[in-house]
Amino acid sequence: MNNIIPTAEDALSSQLMQEVWSLLRFTPGSGHVWMDDSRIALISSAAFANLRRALIEGVGFERTGQMMTRIGYAEGSKDAKLYRQRHPAGSAQEALSMRGELQAIAGFASPGEIHLDADLAHGRFYAELAWNDSLEANVHVLTQGIGTEPVCWILTGHASGYCTDITGRAILFREVECRATGAPRCRVIGKPLDEWGVDASAFSEYLRPQPFVNRFSERGADEGLEDVVGSSAAFFTALHLLRKVAPTKAAALILGETGVGKEVFARVLHRMSPRATQPFVAVNCAAIPESLMESELFGVERGAYTGATESRPGRFERAQGGTLFLDEIGALSYAAQSKLLRALQEGEIERVGDRTTRKVDVRIVAATNVDLERAMRDGHFREDLYFRLNVFPIVIPPLRERPEDIPLLLDYFLTRFSRLHQRRVTGVSERAVEALLLYDYPGNVRELEHMVERAVIMADDDAAIDLSHFASFGSKLSRRSAGPGVDGAVQIRAGVADATAAGLLDQGLDLPTLEAQLLQEAVARAGGKLAPAARLLGISRPQLAYRLKKRGAAKLA
């Protein structure tokens, strides 16, 4: 498509504007303002100007721009989810029109014209967006005067996050005209990140906060490298904690579900630490038989037992001076936990069959998807070992709780596997992108990685990936993205619905009571998990969380 859309006069824009305004709710009694199910706050332009000025004076112009851009990116991603929920079959043109209205209602700018040339199935995306009366530009001119650099950071980040989430590709917008530089209006250009070339590196800090080498790094660059990418608040929180603990000698405990990338983050921590040039040794505690655990960890002397034909060092010695990563630490037997605790306390180990102790200097990083506090209460995990390991806990949230990272991961895996398998994939169809963004990913990042690799292999050269190319994953994605009433939601025929409604009224059930019972039953059936419970009810997870919170507040009152 290739269109010029004068949004101020367009009928579509008018319709979307009315819809956006209908999402805004004020509850003066509680002091809350809501945009759909998200609570928002109103601040004056003067307060916003003072905030920007304080940040620029405190951390500098460049860092302030990065922070503001990241805030805008996160908000854009959130607004894209709102659009998809309300317009699952909407076009890219309609999505961009609604983006402008969302920015207008937030008071950041008046939307101008949109130039769009997009064909997502063939990987093509080019957009030019303009806006008038930018709040960011206005307050910057008032406090800092006319400058040489564009300053509509939140607006530009919002466009990048919004379009990245809508398209499933890493889309980067850059401001090419700004009223803060004396231009008559503010204008940005957006296209896929890889099409910006070398110019992208200085402007994509919020898309790829920091590249790190993953678990394949010790094999060399020719055997595969992987970046840790993300833009969500949870992702930045994890990186912040890694940066804090990396320079120290403290033990770290990485917690998270299977597939969230605990080992990847452990390797990131190692490479950020002063031990980066020393070995990183990983041990999967769940994969080693209990009878071999002691020899694997501490080593064995020749003749210690039948079959021990030579002496060999254990993982502690092999990690000397570096980092020892104990994955699935919750799977260790109680006896193995006792021996590990002694090694950590004394800083020395003793090989099986040897009487000589050896000093070891290793940094311990452990990981588990088990609730260790509960395991402690049940007598399955030593309390003293838990506190020895839990010096600095880092929680990696599941992918379903950081959906802003999905488009970036999708874009990265597409590029990586297309090169690895020498396939020429042009892009991803809109319905496939929508399905991927709505899926819950019980296997987290690892599941997404395998899904994309399979799709790249299944797709034809010079063609787009479609829902069918996800093979065995396709049926799950199709059910999940089909909308309310498909993946577990109850379907009631018109006649049955009438009879059901009449029966409920005859029983004296009012709407609040019925809603409370439905919410409780859905959460119970889903085992306490909100995402599958929301699917049963045919609503979004944030909507369910809001209703539960509201009912809880009402009950307390």
Fold topology:
Blueprint: E1 2-5, H1 11-22, E2 24-27, E3 32-35, E4 38-40, H2 45-59, H3 61-86, H4 92-105, E5 110-119, E6 124-132, H5 135-144, H6 153-167, E7 171-177, E8 186-192, H7 233-245, E9 252-255, H8 262-272, E10 280-284, H9 290-298, E11 299-300, E12 312-313, H10 315-318, E13 323-327, H11 334-346, E14 348-350, E15 357-359, E16 363-368, H12 372-377, H13 383-389, E17 392-395, H14 405-420, E18 425-428, H15 430-438, H16 444-458, E19 463-465, H17 474-481, H18 494-506, H19 511-525, H20 530-537, H21 541-556
Parallel strand pairs: 9-16, 9-17, 10-13, 13-16, 18-19
Antiparallel strand pairs: 1-5, 2-3, 3-4, 5-6, 6-8, 7-8, 11-12, 14-15
Helix pairs in contact: 1-4, 2-3, 2-5, 3-4, 3-6, 4-6, 14-16, 15-17, 19-20, 20-21
Textual characterization of the structure:
- There is one protein chain.
- This protein has 557 residues and is α/β, with parallel strands linked by helices.
- It has four domains: 2-200, Muramoyl-pentapeptide Carboxypeptidase, domain 2, CATH 3.30.1380.20; 233-399, 3-Layer(aba) Sandwich (Rossmann fold); 403-481, Helicase, Ruva Protein, domain 3; 494-556.
- Helices cover 46% and strands 16% of the residues.
- The protein has 21 helices and 19 strands.
- It has helices spanning 11-22, 45-59, 61-86, 92-105, 135-144, 153-167, 233-245, 262-272, 290-298, 315-318, 334-346, 372-377, 383-389, 405-420, 430-438, 444-458, 474-481, 494-506, 511-525, 530-537, 541-556; strands at 2-5, 24-27, 32-35, 38-40, 110-119, 124-132, 171-177, 186-192, 252-255, 280-284, 299-300, 312-313, 323-327, 348-350, 357-359, 363-368, 392-395, 425-428, 463-465.
- Strands 1-5-6-8-7 form a five-stranded antiparallel beta sheet.
- Strand 2 and strand 3 form a beta hairpin.
- The radius of gyration is 27 Å and the shape is globular.
- The protein starts with a strand and ends with a helix.
